[in-house]
Automatic annotation (TrEMBL):
This protein's record includes keyword Metal-binding: no
Subcellular location: Cell membrane; Cytoplasm
The family this protein is said to belong to: Belongs to the interleukin-1 receptor family.
PROSITE patterns linked to this entry: IG_LIKE, TIR
UniProt xrefs under Gene3D superfamilies: Immunoglobulins (2.60.40.10), Toll/interleukin-1 receptor homology (TIR) domain (3.40.50.10140)
Protein name: Interleukin-1 receptor accessory protein-like 1-B
Amino acid sequence: TIREHLGEQEVSISLTIDSLEESDLGNYSCYVENSNGRRQANVQLIKKAELMYTVELAGGLGAILLLLICLVTLYKCYRIELMLFYRNHFGSEDIDGENKDYDAYLSYTKVDPDQWSQETREEERFALEILPDVLEKHYGYKLFIPDRDLIPTGSFTNDHFQDDTRLLRGTFPQIFPTHVNKH
């Protein structure tokens, strides 16, 4: 009995199945009758649909997330190498530099051997040995080094200089500022 009011009782009845088996599934009816009438309620017990493939779904999403993290990490660590690999194998995104022979122009101060100091020797060694070794051999850039790549001619005119700047056109790497010195 839930409550009594003016001589009437409100009653609650429960059916509890402790160990539900497949044979217990089906339709259940409850009838209630008193002097006021009769009531009926129907309940159908069905097997709960299981969420299928939860382990497979979680494993697949986890693998995709792990792959995405690995790809982002690879990009962050090897961005320059990936860009050079792409440029060498699939072409360059550089449209303006189609006719260029060099990626960068290397300019350094050249001093007479009589005026060499330890600092100027280090600068020249850096310009002529270390930079080409790292940029050309390791990263694949093609450097224009005047002492190495400039072919001496009988006369050097302004027109000739403008023709040679075609070799240097294009987008230069942001590693070093580029400039051309006229002599």
